[in-house]
Amino acid sequence: MKFLIVFVALFALAVAAPAQSDDVQVLRQDSNVGIDNFQTSLELNNGIKQQAEGQLKQISNEESAIVVRGSYSWVDPSGQQHSITYIADENGYQPQGADIPVAPVA
């Protein structure tokens, strides 16, 4: 669970980090943090968007985990948009998207 919290925090920092251009501006940034849940979103004027929501999930009497669902997207230098959706839970980080390489079948 600690790993997941650290991962989400580092991910938020990476998405919020300044881009290569000095002209990048935050168009929208929202955050709502509750006792057992959170929601966050960010949109920059260079096409980067990020949103995530998390909720505390009771796995057993002694164990709980934060389940995070979200997405992020960006526009590459050629103008093509890329998007990734993900879930991060007790089973790990599970991204999905057309830009994620697929291992060849043996």
UniProtKB/TrEMBL annotation:
Signal among keywords: yes
Top-rank taxon: Eukaryota
InterPro entries, A to Z: Cuticle_Struct_Prot, Insect_cuticle
Residues annotated as signal peptide: 1-16
Protein keywords: Cuticle, Signal
UniProt keyword Signal, yes or no: yes
Name of the protein described by the UniProt record: Larval cuticle protein 8-like
Organism of this sequence: Drosophila arizonae
